[in-house]
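writing this on my phone so excuse typos. first protein, seq and then structure
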Amino acid sequence: MTDADKPNPEKPVPDDDLPAAGPDSGQSEAGQREASDDGAGSALSSEAATAESSGTAESSGLGRDAPPEGRAEVDPPADRDESPERVNTVRASWRKLSSASALIWVLLALFGFTLVVQLRSNDTDQGLATARQEDLVRILSDLEARDTRLSGEINTLEQSQRQLTSGVAGRQAALAEADKRADELGLLAGTLPGRGPGLRIIIDPKTGTVKASAVLNAVQELRGAGGEVMELDGANGNKVRIVASTYFVDASGGGIIADGVQLTAPYTLWVIGAPQTMQTALQIPGGVVASVESAGGSVAMDQRSLVEVATLRKATDLQYARPVS
């Protein structure tokens, strides 16, 4: 066989040279077509799976370009609802929250204020809680004496009222009551002398000083304990009848000035009233005696069955006031 007779592999073979198609060949062709169809179906299924996986990857962010190594990509937030209704709802919620917060702060402030007041009240009561038994007995005795005195005054006034409304005898009772009232007013105004049981009180500064405020505190305590008539004497011989309008100031050269009269220490205070009650009032813890002693002075008290107050004051001429008829 020559080279010309050899088949050329690059040259296509004519159809005429192919073997005739027989039954076996038809069956083979159908099988090839079925295999071809199966291959196409597999290819389509593969493409669908690839597309599905690609869609899943895109939905999860895996289909995009991968972020650089060491950095995590965060999905952008979803678009918020910026509609006017949404904005108004948010603002209304903030207003409600602000009102509730303000109310809570107000309630907390009121609670704190109440707590502070209660604590201060408890601190004030500690004075009696820490007092000695003797001091508490004196305070109780003073209160009982005041209660007895006020009850007696109430009974006297009620009896006077019954006498004044008793018909014919009421005129005489009215005159007697008027005279009694005039005497009482004369004693209170300092225009009449007085006598009765009471105390003599000597206030001596010694190494310290006794200010006008200490004398004023003593006078107020004695009035609260039932002192009715008082007189203050100075070591220089000056005397002052103490009435409701009496004032006390510190003198520039030492001593005190009472109603314009200068008095020097030691001071002697005469008072008419219940001796035991007035002495107890001056000895209350933190009272007159304690304050004078803390300033370096001393207070000496002497109970007497008879105290005479003879210093008088000139009656004040009223310029504007007139009795109502």
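second protein below, same order as before
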Amino acid sequence: MHLLLTGACAALLLFAALPARQPAADVTRALDAARVRAETGDPVAQFSLGAYLYYGSTQTTDAVEWIRKAAQQGFPPAEHQFGQLHEFGFGVPHDQRVALEWYRKAADHGSAPAQRAVGEFYLKGRGVAPDAAEAARWFRRAADRDDLRAQFQLGQLYFDGNGVPRDYPAAYLWFTIAAGQTPLEDNRQGLIELRNIAAARMAPAAVKAAARRVAAWRPSADR
């Protein structure tokens, strides 16, 4: 039922140190401590508590309310997850425009997954008019901050010349970077195949130059 795992990855900040088979009493104490901090207005505690309740209990209403409180304080992971809740209609009304509003807030606060989500909304025309050029701009922000899916999407746009001029060296760059960090072997091989197709359409000197760009690339901390 609760499928939004991406938004929760950074959420369980107050519970990450608990062993997998922690006694129920210790979990309860950790939850109680988190609730005390959340009630004082700590957005990290609010989001952590909300995410824990959302993924680890049936208290969906309480979970959504804590996530909402953290999001309203401008905590980027909470803003991103609140956007996801509205995108899929889990515990809140399904509303693409509201989802995009929250994704934008998280993106403006530096969330790379949210920046990529905004790009996807523009690419697919969800809650906004389709705009591949605007999608590319958002994918670039997320890709620069090492978001794997944004790197693939940006490489595809350059490969197709969709929203940006067709640029095989740029496609080569982003497909290679994405391939280097994907955890799934099938996906890695697919990205390498796309990289090789781009390389086949480039002069040998251009391939060498693109490989140097890959070697020199580092993620950016800029928003």
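DSSP finds twelve helices and no strands in the chain. thats all i got for now
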